[in-house]
Amino acid sequence: LMNAIALIASQTWRDHPVDLLLSLLVQSLTGLLLGAGIQRLRELNQSLQKELARNQHLAERLLETEESVRRDVARELHDDIGQTITAIRTQAGIVQRLAADNASVKQSGQLIEQLSLGVYDAVRRLLGRLRPRQLDDLTLEQAIRSLMREMELEGRGIVSHLEWRIDESALSENQRVTLFRVCQEGLNNIVKHADASAVT
Q1: Cα distance between residue 43 and residue 186, in whole Å
Q2: Is residue 52, in this structure, part of any structural domain at all?
Q3: Given a cut of 60, is residue 5 above it in pLDDT?
Q4: SS3 for the chain, per residue?
Q5: Residue 3: pLDDT band by 50, 70, 90 thresholds?
Q6: What range does the domain containing 176 cover?
């Protein structure tokens, strides 16, 4: 190509050889600079791809770590609080039996037992939001259906229907957790803020 340009140029530029050389020099430098620019863009693109992959890996690790901590904290709280509430209920039952003759003490024992059951239910709900046990025991579809039942949508006048089209075997654990949490948050928002009569 350069020889052809030189041949054509030598006939056209025979009277002005310096102009020909300058023109060829400018074209050559332009080609070299364009080539260097394209190479630099490729290198930057590869570098950005590596950083993107690294950031995605870090985000996945962060989510895995967060879920692991949530699982551990939920398990420990469930065990500790569950044992404490069981002890409170047992003591309240003892107080009720010992105070069979004293109505106000017996009533206080019953109130303590009822309050402990209320605390247990509240803690169970909060632990379910922290790390739903369904995710450890069920498939994602079963976990979401279980969530819908637990939220008692029908009892709130909300007709619910889940149409499942996901191949769960293709999902990572992070994707399972994320999809569950999106559904969980969406259903919570529907119950709290929307005046919905149906959810699909």
Answers
A1: 42
A2: no
A3: no
A4: CHHHHHHHHHHHCCCCHHHHHHHHHHHHHHHHHHHHHHHHHHHHHHHHHHHHHHHHHHHHHHHHHHHHHHHHHHHHHHHHHHHHHHHHHHHHHHHHHHCCCCHHHHHHHHHHHHHHHHHHHHHHHHHHHHCCCHHHHCCHHHHHHHHHHHCCCHHHCCEECCCCCCCHHHCCHHHHHHHHHHHHHHHHHHHHHCCCCEEC
A5: low
A6: 134-199
HSE of 136, CA atoms in CB hemisphere, 13 A: 12
As given in the structure block, the two tokens for residue 99 are 């105070």
pTM over 0.70: no
Contact 174, 60 (CB under 8 A): yes
Assign residue 169 the CATH number of its domain.
3.30.565.10
Structure token digits, residue 67? 């879920």
Confidence of residue 15 (pLDDT cuts 50, 70, 90): low
Question: Is 173 among the domain residues?
Answer: yes
Tell me, yes or no, whether 193 lies in a domain: yes
105 falls within a domain: no
Rounded mean pLDDT, 174-179: 90
Tally the domains of the chain.
Answer: 1
